[in-house]
Design goal:
It comes from Pseudictyota dubia. This protein is α+β, with helices and mostly antiparallel strands. It is built from three helices and seven strands. A hairpin with a 3-residue loop joins strand 3 and strand 4.
Length: 129
């Protein structure tokens, strides 16, 4: 089940918390999954919207020598902003976040560093907060 952690934190901290809950960051393997993430973000827009033009939440994508999802699923579907510095071959290519506004909603942007952001997790269906 997809959930949003509204606490702003660093990528590694969110990754550890998602794992402690028995899940991972959300991986996005196709357009339908991307649309599900965007729909969840829209549902929580008032809580997510920080009033800036750069509202982006962490997903589970990160790069070393190539992009990968932290749950081990194939990084075959992408939805990069056309001018994203984090897109493959871009200068900033370490972590993936999905945008809620400012750029086309649901487009991905890469970040080299790990600024504190909210995050999207995929948790087991039997998880109870």
């Amino acid at each position: 089940v997809l959930v949003i952690n509204l606490k702003e934190d660093y990528f590694n901290a969110h990754e550890g918390l998602a794992n402690a809950c028995g899940g991972n960051f959300a991986s996005v393997r196709n357009q339908a999954e991307n649309e599900a993430v965007v729909a969840l973000m829209e549902e929580y827009r008032p809580e997510i919207d920080s009033g800036t033009n750069n509202c982006a939440l962490w997903l589970g994508g990160k790069s070393g020598s190539s992009w990968e999802w932290n749950d081990g699923s194939a990084f075959s579907y992408t939805n990069w902003e056309s001018d994203s510095l984090g897109s493959p071959g871009g200068f900033w290519s370490k972590y993936v976040a999905v945008r809620l506004k400012s750029y086309p909603v649901g487009k991905w942007v890469g970040f080299y560093g790990s600024p504190a952001r909210k995050a999207v997790y995929r948790l087991p269906s039997n998880y109870a907060d």
